[in-house]
Design goal:
There is one protein chain. This protein is α+β, with helices and mostly antiparallel strands and 492 residues long. The chain folds into four domains: 2-110 and 234-277, D-Maltodextrin-Binding Protein, domain 2; 112-232, Periplasmic binding protein-like II (D-Maltodextrin-Binding Protein, domain 2, 3-Layer(aba) Sandwich), CATH 3.40.190.10; 281-341; 352-491, 2-Layer Sandwich (Alpha-Beta Plaits). It has helices at residues 2-18, 34-51, 67-72, 83-93, 145-156, 161-164, 176-184, 197-203, 245-256, 263-267, 280-307, 312-341, 352-369, 383-390, 392-408, 433-449, 474-491, and strands spanning 22-29, 55-62, 78-81, 96-105, 108-110, 112-113, 115-120, 136-139, 167-170, 190-194, 212-215, 232-233, 236-239, 272-274, 373-381, 415-420, 423-429, 459-466. The strands form four sheets. Strands 1, 2, 3, 4, 5, 13 and 14 form a seven-stranded mixed β-sheet that branches. The chain has a five-stranded mixed β-sheet with strand order 9-8-10-7-11. It has a four-stranded antiparallel β-sheet with strand order 16-17-15-18, with helices on both faces. α14 (383-390) crosses α15.
Length: 492
């Protein structure tokens, strides 16, 4: 009898140990005071703990200067941070963006952010952005996203942000509202805050917009906030490499279900969570600011050498180095822009512009040397029905998954692209019709085996076309390809 009781207690202990909730720490980057940040994000943590019983979530607030160390030491498992920090930390610590924020303002969905550069409306000497030379600047944090965005605009005016101001000050454990009040009190001349702050203060009836003057004011369609800059992606949540994909999937799918009118969403000023954005614009901004910093460094070094009356050869050498660095940086930026313009923003594969260029090259190569090449056009259905029934967000995720499956099952030499909506195109160099047919049948079989939706069948139709010697242009091959796909769909 005692033996049976012992086994029962032991099994209970083992069951309790195995069912222990997995502890997950979400780090939130902030320059605000911790009490205010807690009121913003703690409801989200409470919501996750309520809806994901197998996990125990807790929050950790990350300062700008400590975030790299916190990620390196694995103090956190996920991080909510500005895209400028994501781009910086992504390369260094292999972060993976899993979602981004959407906000709602009076029925308008807002997925971008900008900076506001302003002064007191009483300052008659500061009307334009060009008139900030020799003035004092106040920011919440010199490392903040808004400050970087604003510096990009100042740089675009051919002004050096690190030299144009006589003094740059930042607040300790304060927020953007405090920056506004400090400017109105005359503590500084120019202020930088993020978009949306002014509107929030006006709506709370604590402030009148007429008290300040916005410099370099810009109007953007579907962006209902004051702005002094270009628009950049909103804040993002990313996972650290030690976190399992399943844990990330459970977290983000639960965040996706937050309703816009809930206490959780309102506390964080979020209407919903959505799939990650394209952050090339942020990366380009950081590269431009980095080039500026490099330019300042070498410039200061050259001045110091001249002050010490060193030989002119050294000064000339430094100037050459500056030119080389700038040329290399500019070349890199151009390559980044070219890459961005050739990829489909949703799926990350080649877009139609890029694949048309590839098709043209393959046609000319085949025409000149007689090498074969084939193309496969795939139509994935029913995308419209998926969007109607489950929403655009699920439809986008479905297309991303299809693109990944196709990329994994084609040859290294094949080129995949998103052709149009739910259509994907594969260019197969040095491939005849029979080989392309085999690949097409393989892909159709793989997609049909997947159970995407319980109440909806996903179909795939494909058309195949190959180069023929009497073709006058690549358009002839594409035209046959479309006809082949149409005939295939009619038969079904």
């Amino acid at each position: 009898m005692r033996y049976i009781i012992f086994l029962t207690l032991l099994s209970s202990l083992l069951l309790s140990a195995t069912s222990k909730a997995k502890e997950i720490t979400i780090g939130v980057n902030t320059s605000d005071n911790y009490e205010r940040t807690s009121s913003t994000w703690q409801p989200t943590i409470d919501y996750l703990n309520k809806n994901l019983k197998n996990y125990k979530f807790k929050i950790m607030y990350l300062k700008y200067g400590d975030i790299g160390k916190n990620i390196k030491n694995k103090d956190v498992d996920f991080v909510i941070l500005e895209p400028s920090l994501l781009v910086k930390m992504q390369k260094r610590y292999d972060l993976t963006a899993i979602g981004r924020v959407l906000r709602d303002r009076n029925g308008t969905s807002v997925d971008k952010k900008s900076a506001v550069i302003f002064t007191s409306s009483e300052r008659k000497d500061i009307i334009l952005l060009d008139e900030i030379q020799g003035k004092r600047l106040l920011v919440n944090s010199i490392n903040s996203y808004a400050t970087k965005i604003a510096f990009g605009e100042i740089l675009a005016k051919e002004l050096n942000p690190s030299r144009v101001f006589t003094k740059i000050s930042e607040l300790e454990n304060k927020n953007d509202e405090d920056v506004i009040y400090k400017i109105l009190d005359g503590k500084s001349d120019i202020g930088i805050i993020e978009s949306g702050v002014i509107e929030k203060m006006v709506e709370s009836k604590n402030f009148q917009k007429e008290h300040i003057r916005i410099l370099n004011q810009q109007n953007h369609s579907n962006f209902p906030y004051f702005s002094s800059s270009k628009l950049y992606p909103e804040i993002v949540i990313a996972k650290l490499p030690h976190i399992l994909n399943q844990d990330a999937k459970n977290l983000i799918s639960t965040l996706f279900l937050i309703k816009a009118d809930s206490k959780v969403a309102k506390s964080a000023n979020i209407s919903s969570w959505y799939i990650p954005d394209n952050y090339d614009s942020v990366e380009q901004l950081l590269e431009e600011l980095e080039i500026l910093n490099s330019k300042n460094y070498y410039y200061d070094m050259a001045i110091e050498i001249l002050k010490e009356r060193k030989i002119e050869l050294i000064a000339g050498l430094i100037l050459i180095i500056i030119i080389i660095v700038l040329v290399i940086r500019e070349t890199f930026l151009i390559k980044r822009i070219d890459k961005m313009s050739s990829l489909d923003q949703l799926t990350g594969i080649n877009n139609r512009i890029k694949i048309n260029y590839i098709i043209k090259n393959e046609f000319q190569r085949s025409k000149r040397y007689g090498h074969p090449f084939s193309m496969i056009l795939l139509d994935i259905t029913p995308l419209r029905e998926i969007n109607r029934k489950y929403g655009q967000k699920i439809g986008d995720e479905f297309l991303i998954y299809i693109a990944e499956e196709l990329q994994e099952n084609i040859r290294v030499t094949d080129r995949l692209s998103r052709w149009d909506g739910e259509k994907f195109l594969i260019v197969c160099p040095n491939t005849k019709n029979n080989d392309s047919l085999a690949l097409s049948n393989k892909i159709e079989a793989i997609i049909k085996e997947k159970d995407f939706f319980d109440d909806m069948e996903v179909n795939i139709n494909s058309g195949i076309s190959s180069f023929e010697e009497d073709d006058n242009s690549e358009s002839d091959v594409i035209e046959r390809l479309n006809r082949a796909l149409d005939n295939k769909m009619k038969k079904r």
